[in-house]
Amino acid sequence: MSAPQDQTTATPDEPAARDSLARSSALMASGTLVSRLLGFGRSVVQGAAIGTTTQIGAQTFDVANKAPNLFYMLLAGGVLNAVLVPQIVRALKAPDGGKEYVDRLVTLALVIMAVATVAVTLAAPLVVHAYATTFPPEWLTLTAAMAFWCLPQVFFYGLYTVLGQVLNAKGSFGPFMWAPVLNNVVAIAGLVVFMVMVPNAGELRADQWEPWMIALLAGTATLGIVAQALVLFWPLRRAGFHYRPRWGFRGFGLRSAGRVAGWTFAAVVVGQLVFFFTTNTSNNAGQELTKAGIDGATGASYTYAYLLFMLPHSLVAVSLVTALFTRISTAAAVGNVAAVRRDFSSGARTVTVTGALATAGFVALGPALGSAMFAGGRPIGQVLVAMSLGLVPFSVNYLVSRVFYAYEDAKTPFVVATVNAVVTALGNLVCWLAVPAQWTVVGVGVTMSVANVIAGVVGLVLLRRRLNHLDGHGIDGYLLLRTGVRVLVITVVAGGIGFAGTWFVGPVDGRLPNIAVVLVGGVVVLAVFVAFSRVMRVRELEDLVAPLLRRLPLPGRR
After folding, report:
1. Domain spans of the chain?
2. Rg of the chain, C-alpha, whole Å
3. Whole-Å CA distances, 129 to 60, 118, 137, 428
4. What pTM, to 2 d.p., does this model score?
């Protein structure tokens, strides 16, 4: 593929644009942080309500409540995220501001989601069997009953994504990231009520769960997703968007959207097929540990570790890339390749540095962090350490895919996703066949990291071919590479010092002592990371927070 030619167009004032991007990212990150903290609180309450990761209620509800999210991603999640913003940005140039086009695009998306939701809900027993093939029959029956209440979440996940992406395309980023706060509040309230009414749920056998218990536990989880979606109608109306269903989809330029959607759907299918394997590998290990009465990582441990893994990615990478995606899509639409390179380089270097800081902290403090947050959480922390080694390429590749989507190219991300899936499948097979059950899920985490590293390298190589080089116009084309090498050194030093400290202290019992280890160790890792960043002239972390610090009402500042 030939490299595009630079178009010399006026670019916004760089400091002002950077400050605006920092403010938008901070608004989204604050919503994500509050939501994630509530999410961890929800996990703690859930553990108290239905038992630890090796108990029946926890494992069956984990599969039932995870299934709608996974099926939503399979059916439309990646498609909507790839299609909506670039299409809406281009539609805004129409005489009517793109209203008719957007109405038809939204209508088509919601109809597909509604049909898909009805289909997967009716097929609940088949759905749970696909994700938990090794569960005993009585466990599968309980999981299917929970899934009947959980699977309607698929439509409301879709509604939330559609409305949120319309807001993002219009430059309103906060509501999309703050809406999950309401979801977690509703879900926590439901869990508290359940815990009061069923105080011994963690001790129940599968056949002792009554229909009203299932409805209360799973129904309130779904009610939270409903609230998360419907609350977005209010900011949409304030932004001037009044949705009106429009039918008839021919002749309105939806073919390009369909082409992008087709490749994106294929990429998601490949990923989810492998995730079936990952889920079953983890659940099989959990079942073996439950039978043997051995403590170790299970499928639920993987879920909790993944929540922690996604926290820095969501706080920085998702927030930053969501704001950049609109800018990159706008630049791509007018052929301003230099602006695309500049925004990609800046974003990639920022997520590299922040992701590396999180990696250093997770490697040093993972087991203590798991024990501090969850009862019997040391295996969760071990899985987190394994996952975290691939955090930086995972976040960078997230931005890489958005650049391709901005050019309405979903075929290349499909190639990258296929590479990731093949590596993951091979690693999971090794874990299933050759790794003891106590360490199987940790091995799955290592596989995830290896796959992310390989896929990340492939994605960057293909993007460089697409854009000719990866840094902004007039900047040394190896700036991103040099930053990456320096950050790798800093991460090894900071993570190594933190790990040595926790190794010297040794494992401690109890939640409060582990919290103390995490707090003290976290300060040490952060201080070392910041100090070495200054010595090695890595300024991205400082550039990210400086515009926000300037806005704080500090003493003596007017």
Report:
1. 13-253, 285-547
2. 23
3. 11, 18, 10, 19
4. 0.73
